[in-house]
Please model this.
Amino acid sequence: MNAFPQTIHFIGSNTPRRLEISARNLEVEGEIPAEIDGAFFRAVPDNAHVPMFEDDIALNHDGMISRFHFENGAVDFDIRYVETDRYLAEKEARRALFGRYRNPFTDDPSVEGVDRTVSNTTPVWHAGRLFMTKEDGRGYEINPHTLETVGKWDYYGRLRSETFTAHPRVDAITGELFFFGYEAGGLCSLEIAYGIADAEGNLVSEQWFEQPYCATIHDFVITQKYAIWPIFPTTADLDRLKAGGAHWAHQQELESWLAIMPRYGKVEEMKWIKGPPGISAFHEVNAYDDGDLIHIDLCLTDTNAFSFMREAGGIERDQQSLQGALTRWTIDMSEPDPQIEERPLGPPGDLPRLADVDQGRPYNRAWYLSMNPQGGPPMPGGPVGINFNALMRIEPGNGRLSVMGVPPGAAISEPAHVPSSDPNHGGWLMSVVDIPNAPPGQGAPHDYASELWIIEADEVEKGPIAKVKTGLALRSQVHGSWVSRTKLEQSKVR
Ligand SMILES: [Fe+2]
Model:
């Protein structure tokens, strides 16, 4: 049998496409503002081979780097595989050799010891270099002009951590990149590495500490004063892995934690704050200092949003029954024993984005994706298996919300923000929207057309001002990044 399974990880916008293609001068409806000049890079999981196991999941699929390139109003599209060690080994063998998601004990013996990461989560631009990242390994550098894989990135041999988050935080003002790696010392290790790369891309600090249990830490935040890790009780277990089981199981009864370190401080100065049990968040929007207070805005749910992580922990909950909200946690650092104060900011959702300049600073707008129940049944696909169908703009200070829907049955991917040089203009968002070719309920789930929508960032309710038609059905992305022409011209790779 050499056919893909027909689960939520392989249907709808998760349908395997596996095409490395280039298309020039895409059709554009509307007008692309002249200031939009640069590249929108996206990380797209799309496995090159039929998986070894039927219960394979989208997070385990080979990473592809995709690019919409904008120049003088023309748009070109490219997508290529990230040539990880794993991709190259399987390409040579013409079949899958790596087994279950983050479980090396399920691999073909021929690839024992080969790096398993698939670089499928976030394209990260820093100090003239483009990386494709996934939290279970180190980043791979990509040539931003050709999309060729340059190789694994270890800061000129200085990086000790075996892993590098897919959610580093770049301070746009100082140019520094703040990152961490969990399971830094190896599979299921408790060690977390916290690193800082300066504006030139040199690793200037790397410190290690241990977390209370081996949790998945997908994202973290910085403020001007602190680096902060929210830790939620989805845990790994080496014995379970050796038995061929899941890497992650959510533990509904276990407490959560907030680990806080001065941004330029030492492990010895860390504060640990216990949080509510059972909760989960994969993405934080932003955090900032307000005198002695820290505000952390996060996409919080009452349990883990991934069904396979819940099921491994014995939790039976429908995806639709999950409760959550865009939530603000406030901590008073002047208290001897600081506690988390919680209040809702906005409707539930995920995949939050900021303007780059607002990173770690007080901010008055953000964007994220949510579900519009009036939008018809959601298209299957995306990392959790169900796509979003609404784009939200929120003002965290006053809760003001504006919403852009998509056509019935369509799906919207995480937007990127493109700043304007005009201080009175809020810039633009760009986001891939997958639109079914047939009326809802009538067509095949893999039959849709992918368009890139350009939206006024501060007027999302008005809908797109331009649509770039790919003429293709694109596989769902995870995260994306906008890289301006100025930055592309400063690329260290030619
Ligand atoms: Fe993420």
